[in-house]
Amino acid sequence: MKGKLLPAFFAAGLTLLLGASVLGVQLQSQGIETVVVVHGPLTWLGLFAAAAVVFAYQLVKDRVQRVRQNARQGSRFRLPAFLENHAQRRLMIALAIGALLMFPFMAERSAVDIATLTLIYVMLGLGLNVVVGLAGLLDLGYVGFYAVGAYTYALLNSYFGFSFWEALPIAGGMTALFGYLLGFPVLRLRGDYLAIVTLGFGEIIRILLNNLTEITGGPNGIARIPEPSLFNLQFARRADEGYTSFHEFFGIAYDPTHKVIYLYILALLFALAVAYIIYRLMRMPIGRAWEALREDDIACRSLGLNPTGVKLSAFTIGASFAGIAGSIFAARQGFISPLSFTFIESAIVLAIVVLGGMGSQLGVVLAAVAMTLLPEIAREFNEYRMLLFGLIMVLMMVWRPQGLLPLKRPQMELKRG
Amino acid sequence: MADTPLLSVRELSMRFGGLLAVDRVSMDVAPCEVVSIIGPNGAGKTTVFNCISGFYRPTGGEVIFEGKPMHRLPGFKIARAGMVRTFQNVRLFKEMTVIENLLVAQHMQAERNLLKGLFLTRGFRRREAELMDRAAHWLERVGLIEFANREAGNLAYGQQRRLEIARCMVTQPKLLMLDEPAAGLNPNETRDLDRLIVQLKEEEGITVLLIEHDMSLVMGISDRIYVVNQGQPLANGTPEQVRRNPEVIKAYLGEE
């Protein structure tokens, strides 16, 4: 401690000296004379406070650095011990799902609405995590698949009157097909090149939607997309011909929150299903092949794995999740236009994956929550939203380049005495 | 040499632009035989390997494996046919665990039906258990069983080499191709490797094609040796014949 006192004093003195000469005194010309103006006590108080901060920091600098180093070295974040146990973990997951199911009945309508959007981002994050985090294919055009999913439902509905439930599997299949068709020519590219081509793909989809005015309505988008029904019970005030509405069936007063809550629960169930499917995929031969391919594709080939096939499967499966998320998005908004599918959406979803920790599901969920809630909470800083976003990214890269909760190994364990 | 070779290479040539890296190399490998390819640095040994295993498409000649032409097939199909190789510089999946490395290698034997995996059917579980057992068996064989749940990248170099061989073996190959398996190993580890290769041949009936610089290893375990120099076949025969061949001595030691 003693050895640090002198340098700390020195640093504080230096701060004071430099600060005082820049901020404390000023030269001003009055007439033909130049006078030295000494600033008021408030400035000086600020300067002394700054010097004190520098002094204090110099004293604890070592410790701060040690903490930073630990944060960097402790790259494998360990879950709290009670989550390591299998049965207890199941209990925690069940409790969490229970709490999430209860949430809409307690919260305000707007909060539930935002939660639905968050869940859509969770789905997108999990889907992109398959492509980027597990298979290691940098995809910057993920929003393209999201758009295909949303527009598939919207178009099928407005032209052919398909309901949400009829359109959903088609939307999933359609985006999977798009993923496959795009993947086929581009997957022989690697890294940066792949990123550029997928970026282009996302833009092509958006521009197509914008310009195929006769079909998609162009920039005007598609309006009056109906929300999903619950076993043929509709959530509108007045049901269509031949349908019953939800409130009439149960004999309760019409309340628009029913619809919001229903959409939330729907999104929650889909997000849980997606999470479970990916959890299983990671422990299946295909998931292992994705990870192996990310690490070394030459070794994969030498073991009889077809790299193109493995990549295509990751691309296709990841895309289909985006399609389902897109359909739910269209149903929630009731209105979609190409403006909802700009590059920034891809960037946000990618940021979710990177922030969460590549390949880590819990991390991606947390990051998705953070990335959608933060802008909502910081509404006043609306103009600085992008700035904040960039700042968080930079800080993350400095402090935890591996993400909030990096992928924890192993997925498969040899259990034996 | 048996009358029907497992692998037969005819007049294999590989040209990179103006450079003829491999010039009409032929060889036969009979079942259950250990055959080595030796030659000075830059002689084209690894290029021959890359051509046989489908990582390069040879510009001339043919590769016949079990009577089927292989020289037009991509690498992964050749691996599926039963010719599996290791690499000069170890290529493990370093961030995956040892056991996962062996599970990935058994991808072709795994139950890959997505629905069966998603719903964890009994068939899927049984198949995964089989893969796990085979992996454990081979880990025991190469003495890495206690490291099963470690990350492969954290193993010592010699252990990584052995894991790479185990990873080939779980695919149940007919021909194992080892590219300088003893490179970077200490004498003890080399002796272990020697013993392992002999065991593979005698207990598993595996055919081994080997590139190696360690002459004591090569002379000890090879049934036959092919010598390649500057892309051209120089000599072949039993270790004894090769050792006495004046051409080989000249290529290795230079002319008087």
Intertermini distance of chain A = 51 Å
User: Uncertain segments of chain B of ≥5 residues (pLDDT<50)?
Assistant: none
Number of helices of chain A: 17
Q: Tell me the β content of chain B.
A: 15-25%
Structural class of chain B: alpha/beta
Taking all Cα atoms into account, the compactness measure Rg of chain B is: 19 Å
Overall mean pLDDT of chain A stands at 83
Quaternary structure type? heterodimer
Strand order, biggest sheet of chain B? 6-7-8-3-9-10
CATH hierarchy: architecture of the largest domain in chain B = 3-Layer(aba) Sandwich
How far is it from the N-terminal to the C-terminal residue of chain B, by CA?
35 Å
- The fourth-level CATH homologous superfamily of the largest domain in chain B is P-loop containing nucleotide triphosphate hydrolases
How many separate structural domains of chain A? 2
Low-confidence stretches of chain A: none
Write up this protein:
By secondary structure, chain A is mostly helical. Helices cover 71% and strands 4% of the residues of chain A. Chain A folds into two domains: 2-28 and 38-64; 83-399, Orthogonal Bundle (ABC transporter involved in vitamin B12 uptake, BtuC). Chain A contains 17 helices and four strands. In chain A, the strands form two sheets. Chain A has a two-stranded antiparallel sheet with strand order 1-2. In chain A, α15 (343-356) packs across α16. Chain A is globular. The two termini of chain A are 51 Å apart. Chain B has 256 residues and is of the alpha/beta class. Chain B has ten helices and ten strands. Chain B has a six-stranded mixed sheet, with helices on both faces. In chain B, β1 (7-16) and β2 (19-29) form a beta hairpin. In chain B, α3 packs parallel to α6 (157-169) and α5 (122-141) packs across α6 (157-169). Chain B is globular. The mean pLDDT of chain B is 88. At the A-B interface, α11, α12 and α13 of A face α2, α3, α4 and α5 of B.
